[in-house]
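Researcher: Structure for this, please.
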Amino acid sequence: MWALLAGCARSPSTIRGPLLVEVTATRATFDAGAPVTPVVAVAVAPSDPSDVAVPVEVLHDNVRRFRGQDEEALLRAMATRPVVRVLHRFSSSTLVFHCDLGDGVEIAFKPARRGEHQWWKHEVLAYRLARVLGIVDRVPPAVSRRVPAALIEGFAHDRDLIRERDGSIRGVAITWMPVLHSSGLHTAEARHEWTRWMSARHDIPPAHRRRAGQIASLIAFDYLQANFDRWNGGNVPLDEHEDMVFRDNNRGWFLENLVLADNGWVVNLERIPASLLAGVERATADAVRAEVRRDGLPFHRLETAGYWAAYSARRTALLRRIAAAIAEHGRERVLLDE
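Model: Predicted structure, token format:
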């Protein structure tokens, strides 16, 4: 199983240390209650959704929703509303600013930094991939935007923020999750249990089928984007409903990892939700590229044929693995119900 998650991963050149790292967020030491003058942010709004036609999962009212909210409306608000105030700054492997946009809209803002100038873009890529896959309510919506440098530099303490010519800082706005707590799924004991669930040779206890489906979805999701930094205490949290949240995706999408699509990554994955398999089948490189373009930010590095060829090879490897599992064990043992 761990060949799938970590065995062939290579960290980008800016990353040091062990493959799986415990991430602990720390609250910045400043007065979060101090008033901050509202500043009009320079924002990049999502492009018109009608520009492209990408098959994504929609709900009964033809509106894709996250935690009951219209995702398109939420994305527009996160991309365009001025930041009213910065509530907190968290620092772990990257910087995160908890920002209030007013009217109950709060975001986590990950800025562009020297040595990590692509990391925030990977959050947008992960969210857009999730949309094409039809993953609903697991990946918090993410959209590119700019924030005035003056608004956050005082809280950043010279942490290598990249300032644009217009005085703004690019980054990603991610829906703020009000409740997150540890799942414990990263521990050795939990891994031993749920690794068996991923094998079609073993039964899944009825009480754990929902969790097994979420874990299988996360493994497939991470494989497609070559995200090697998942199974630590900070990156597999649960929300207030005890459902998994697929957050913190900035370590995916590095080309040096995407090209490693050999069978060692997926040889032990034998289960996947039936709806997600359909999502993987439709998540061609062209479909994902079209979805990414809806964000409105030019991702020049992603227009190279080699980048998407590497993604396509991973998608093909995943589909072949699930097909082999179905051939060996039967659809009823491999495809998890919802």
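Researcher: Any notable elements?
Model: The first helix runs from residue 2 to 7. The mean pLDDT is 82.
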